[in-house]
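Many introductory courses stop at the sequence. We go one step further.
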Amino acid sequence: MRTAPAQLGGRYCAARGMTFLEVVFATVILAMTVATMAATVAAISTQQWRSQKLLATAELANRLVIQYLDDADALPSQDLTVSYGADEYRWKMRVTRVTATLDETVVRNIEEAQSRRSSATPDRLKKVVITVWLSEKSGGMLLADQGAPQSTLVRIVDPFAFGRRTPDSLTHKMEDTGKLLEQLLGNDIEPDEEDE
């Protein structure tokens, strides 16, 4: 399209248009800007997806710990996946003993207190470690530590702390005295596992 010449001080000048190189350069800059924006949006979307899965694994790990504290026999099998929302998750649990390393003064005070009354040792505490990760059925992995979104929850449990559980949990534990005795004696602790 031709433009009308402009009159400048009695002389006519032609209006300057864009050259082919300027058009190509502008197109390249526009394409690079769009590609950068698309990559940024994709990265944000991926990060949001991963954050949602991490939040779900943490929530599921917390629920499994609470279920362990209330009734360990009601836990789902570790060989099967657990549904949470629209996704499937895998989980594993380890229960180990917490070994106490105490100062000499504290040890002496504990020994004196135990000689006055019968009580449990400080080694009665248990470490419950539950790891939950996104299953291969929902875009995750078959095994933990292979890159799938995962959460590990560690809880130190005192089997003698009856007052810190709900009344329903206490009633359920009192119904099965054999299981309660096993937990108090630490018979549910895995003997061949090493503490981390």
